[in-house]
Structures are given as structure tokens and as C-alpha cells.
Design brief:
Organism: Micromonospora tarensis
CATH class: Alpha Beta
Radius of gyration: 19 Å
Shape: elongated
Number of strands: 8
Domain Methyltransferase: 58-152
Distance between the termini: 37 Å
Number of helices: 10
Protein name: Class I SAM-dependent methyltransferase
Largest sheet: 8 strands, mixed
Oligomer: single chain
Strand order of the largest sheet: 1-7-8-6-5-2-3-4
InterPro entries: Methyltransf_25 (IPR041698), SAM-dependent_MTases_sf (IPR029063)
Number of domains: 1
Strand content: 15-25%
Structural class: alpha/beta
GO molecular function: methyltransferase activity
Bound molecules: S-adenosylmethionine
Length: 271
Amino acid sequence: MSANPFLDPALVHGDLYRSDSRLADRTHALHRAKISGNDVAETIADLLASRVPLGAAVLDIGCGRGTTTLRLADRLRPRRLVAIDASAALLHATRDRLGHARARRSVVCADFHQLPMPDDVADAAVAAFCLYHSATPELAIAEIARCLHPGGTAVLVTKSLNSYAELDHLVHAAGLDPDAISRSSLYESFHSGNLHTVAATNLTVIDVQHEEHLFHFADATHLARYLITTPKYRITLTGGIPALAAALRQRLSAPPYTTRSTVSYAVAVRP
Ligand SMILES: C[S@@+](CC[C@H](N)C(=O)[O-])C[C@H]1O[C@@H](n2cnc3c(N)ncnc32)[C@H](O)[C@@H]1O
């Protein structure tokens, strides 16, 4: 097992994304806490809207529950939209959420290191918050480049190494995980700081943008709902969210609990 849970294939292709509930709970808790920062799916659509024509063929790689896929379907009106993920459960959720818009959409279960697509098939490709699950993200980017037409656009999205670091300190201060502050970042393989360099291994980088997102968890239950979804910590307390919330309430100063993350976007083209 890798020391970094996000780079542990057994976890990533096992418990982490075996069902869509952990990702849905995490996203819900984060969205409720967010007090600044633009909507990521909307930003991706904005970045692509000016670069791809209506009727384009678009890939959403590591689509998860399909939040970005849905926005791309609405905003770009692609001729073909393919959502790709290694998790059958998450693809199922994406397909359900695409609903009536499914006609020209498809979902494909595949590893992003080996995309089951011909060369030169897409006008645009998105890989949001997924390449940090690879110890070799440049190999996935080579696959993305291979699938794009020459001149086709990729939008790659990740987070800063220090994302949510304030929560490491809270978990440590609450005595829930003594190693919380010394563990490496979940995003160590692909993050705001190496995004440009890794993207440039196989693509021509046009632009990189960074935006800070700020989160206020209103109370201990809200924070517990988020913490329980992150594989970073080894919290041995039993009793689920109520027990975790009670421990946070007892051991930490009064809420809100604040944390931040930088979200970074690279726009890159296949030369
Ligand atoms: C945090 S979710 C990203 C969700 C989505 N892109 C979004 O922005 O909402 C990470 C996704 O990457 C997928 N993933 C991880 N490793 C993968 C791999 N080797 N090939 C394809 N998908 C992978 C997971 O199954 C999961 O759905």
C-alpha cells in the first residue's frame, strides 16, 4: 500500500470510489462550506467555450459523478460527449444524471493511462481532480494528447499541495490523529505547483490560472461530515459522524472552522 491513500491503487480502485456516496457526501459538505471561489464546472465550461466550436467531440476523463460532464453537455452542446472513469459505480451515477441528454453521450469504463479511443478523436478533453490519483500523471497526459486532434484543447484541473492544511491542524489538535500534520499531501503527484510542468510533457500550455477557495464549516457536525470522507486521516474513534462531532465540539475552540484550497486550471493544446 502507498503511504499516500490517493496513490494507492487498491484504495482508489476499491473502497474510495466503489460507490458514489463518499464522493457525493464530500462534495456536498465542501459546497455547503464554500464561501468564496467560482464554480469549477462552470469555469471549465467557460475556458472551453471560447476554444471549441459547437458540435465538438469532448472527453471528460475521470468524470466521477458527472458534475462537469453535465455542465459540458449544457454549455458546449457537443456532437459527442464521452465520460470516462475507472469506477463503474460513478459512471452509473453519471449516466443517470445525464438523463434525457443521454442520446449523444456515452460512458466508458477505462483507466486514463490507456484510453480505449482512437488517435485524433476529440476537439477537447477535460481531466478535473483526477490525475492526482496517478503516480505518473504525464502518462495520462500523453494519452489525452494522443486522443486530441492537433490543435485540440485540454483543460486540466487540480489543487494546491497545501489544500485543507488547516484541517490537519484541527484533527491533530483534537487528538484524533497524531500524524495528521506530518502526512504528505493527497495531491503530491499532480498539484498547482507542478501542473504546468507535467502538462507541458505532452501538450503546449497556453494558460495556467489559480484561484483560492475558502471554506467555513459552520459547526462540528458539518466538519465531521467532511472529515469522515477524507482518507488522509487515521481516525480510530468509533460511532461515526455523531461521535466525531462530539469529540470536535469538546476538544476544539468554537466554530466556524476555516480552511482553504487553491484550485488550478491549465489550458493546453495538442501541438
Ligand atoms: C475526485 S473524482 C473527480 C470527479 C470529477 N472529475 C469532478 O471534477 O467532479 C476522481 C475520479 O478519478 C477516477 N479515477 C481515479 N483513477 C483513475 C484511473 N486510473 N483511470 C480513470 N479514472 C480514475 C475516480 O474513479 C474518480 O471518479
